[in-house]
UniProtKB/TrEMBL annotation, chains A, B:
<dbReference type="InterPro" id="IPR053378">
    <property type="entry name" value="Prenyl_diphosphate_synthase"/>
</dbReference>
<dbReference type="GO" id="GO:0004337">
    <property type="term" value="F:(2E,6E)-farnesyl diphosphate synthase activity"/>
</dbReference>
<dbReference type="Pfam" id="PF00348">
    <property type="entry name" value="polyprenyl_synt"/>
</dbReference>
<protein>
    <submittedName>
        <fullName>Geranylgeranyl diphosphate synthase type II</fullName>
        <ecNumber>2.5.1.1</ecNumber>
        <ecNumber>2.5.1.10</ecNumber>
        <ecNumber>2.5.1.29</ecNumber>
    </submittedName>
</protein>
<keyword id="KW-0479">Metal-binding</keyword>
<dbReference type="InterPro" id="IPR008949">
    <property type="entry name" value="Isoprenoid_synthase_dom_sf"/>
</dbReference>
<keyword id="KW-0808">Transferase</keyword>
<dbReference type="GO" id="GO:0004311">
    <property type="term" value="F:geranylgeranyl diphosphate synthase activity"/>
</dbReference>
<keyword id="KW-0460">Magnesium</keyword>
<dbReference type="GO" id="GO:0004161">
    <property type="term" value="F:dimethylallyltranstransferase activity"/>
</dbReference>
<dbReference type="GO" id="GO:0046872">
    <property type="term" value="F:metal ion binding"/>
</dbReference>
<dbReference type="InterPro" id="IPR033749">
    <property type="entry name" value="Polyprenyl_synt_CS"/>
</dbReference>
<dbReference type="GO" id="GO:0016114">
    <property type="term" value="P:terpenoid biosynthetic process"/>
</dbReference>
<dbReference type="InterPro" id="IPR000092">
    <property type="entry name" value="Polyprenyl_synt"/>
</dbReference>
<dbReference type="GO" id="GO:0005737">
    <property type="term" value="C:cytoplasm"/>
</dbReference>
<comment type="similarity">
    <text>Belongs to the FPP/GGPP synthase family.</text>
</comment>
<keyword id="KW-0414">Isoprene biosynthesis</keyword>
Length: 302, 302
């Protein structure tokens, strides 16, 4: 993602990340939790990363509301952005567990269960998920908006979990090849991106057609994100990724390059990038931050 | 708990359990989830048990609203009751994991990770938690009530997780003896009971003083529940419990009988039972279902 703030329209990316991290840190610190649990939540919630989902929340808000240029984010928007990041952090902590992906490193740091222990990683993952809902309910004054945001967050989480099951505990239900791959990714990666865009839109008071445009955009970007990810897994090396490479390919997993070849997958990135732009047409010029985000994600490195 | 419906005031206990189980089953079945995930959610969500928390939701509602005598439960109340049961089921699934309590049996049945596998148990636990929030948001029409219920559910879950950390991953923070034991149980067991009573009250439109009375009642019953549990662990045998007995005592865990002796703990049950009745005084005659529930829980067997 582009972090050159001079090219941003709307809230500068670095300010966005600072606000997200500060809110997450303050909320956990003030919640009244056992110290070791709070430490574990912060270790994971504030880990290195590009804050793609909170960024999508804010850019989707801006695409409906207009650019956020100065001052702190509206409280409900900040809560939505932090909430979805907490859900993302929860998913990483549990995915890394020995019974799941069994990863020792994430972005060059020990995973939480290596940093602490497995019991704490299970409980801290649970805690990040439950805190995300609490944070939203405590930081949104408009009940209708608050309930809508909680609903989006819950549905995104449930769809993500379904995607994880489709991916790692597959049953033979007749869905194969590219259809199976798309089903996995529309849920596993796509659900939180879709939820991010919809939550941002809802905070801006988007109408049904705007929510629909944001949803289609996010679904498209979500698939593109995953094709790029698959391509990066092939082309990057362990040192730059902080985790084992080509792990998916070696494990015989479905990937876009595996199904369409590297060139086919690269062409698919371009097709999806164009489709993302098309999805934004109903939102007009205000959607420029989302156009830039799609373009950034199409060429991102890990 | 007393399941003799002839002695019930308000909704018969067996009808209550039927409605709770049916709603949970229908919601999971219609959610559109991978079949194996749905099966895992139902295995745990519909496992044997007395549905203490949903019962407390409904009896707290009745204590404010008056007895529910005929017809199905109001939709919001049913959602609150099923939601808290899902959170309880999630906590059992994760507590049983090898990295936590490592239990193979629960109430005579294989625990979920023995019935399926550890990855599915992690994901299904996560799923029960996230679905509980989704179910509440989708089944409560009044946004202010819905948001309040989600807030209660989230806070109860977070406090419960904190209690689990205080219990199983304790740090030396100077809190010792009975104070430490009460802190553990006010969170670990107490939080969901407190949340149940408050959610039931909120569904009935309880005012602040009624919510306060319900909270005090639930906190008291929650501690009593735990003292009874500790006493049952000493007096029951493996065959009737479906799990290893005296496990806590052997592991050197803090227990009420361990700290106060068996007779001291039995006296504490009576004291807490009286305090629960006292807490209900502001609610008057309508609180009779909660008085009976406290009396039932004081003499319960596993």
């Amino acid at each position: 993602m582009n972090t050159d703030t001079s090219s941003q329209i709307g809230m500068p990316q670095d300010q966005l990340v600072v606000e997200i991290n500060a809110k997450l840190r303050d909320y956990v610190a003030q919640r009244g939790l056992p110290r070791n649990l709070a430490d574990a939540l912060l270790y994971s919630g504030l880990g290195p990363g590009k804050r793609v989902r909170p960024t999508l929340v804010v850019r989707s808000y801006e695409a409906v509301h207009g650019p956020l240029t100065d001052g702190p984010m509206p409280e409900a928007l900040l809560a939505a952005a932090v909430g979805i990041e907490m859900v993302h952090a929860f998913s990483l902590v549990h995915d890394d567990l020995p019974a799941m992906d069994d990863d020792d490193l994430r972005r060059g740091r020990p995973t939480l269960h290596k940093h602490t222990n497995e019991a704490m990683a299970i409980l801290a993952g649970d805690g990040l998920l439950a805190l995300s809902f609490e944070l939203v309910t405590r930081n949104v004054n408009d009940p209708a908006l608050g309930l809508a945001l909680v609903g989006e967050l819950a549905t995104a989480t449930n769809d993500m979990i379904a995607g994880q099951v489709y991916d790692t505990l597959p049953e033979d239900d007749g869905v194969e090849g590219i259809d199976r791959l798309i089903r996995i990714h529309r849920n596993k990666t796509g659900a939180l991106l879709r939820g991010s865009a919809r939550m941002g839109g809802r905070c801006a008071g988007a109408d049904a057609s705007q929510i629909e445009a944001l949803t289609r955009y996010a679904d498209t970007v979500g698939l593109m994100f995953q094709v790029v990810d698959d391509l990066l897994d092939i082309t990057s090396d362990a040192a730059s990724m902080g985790k084992a490479t080509q792990k998916d390919a070696e494990a015989g997993k479905l990937t876009y390059p595996g199904l369409m070849g590297v060139e086919g997958a690269q062409a698919e990135v371009q097709r999806l990038q164009a489709e993302a732009h098309e999805a934004l047409e109903p939102l007009g010029a205000a959607a420029e931050p989302l156009r830039r985000l799609a373009d950034d994600l199409a060429v991102r490195r890990k």
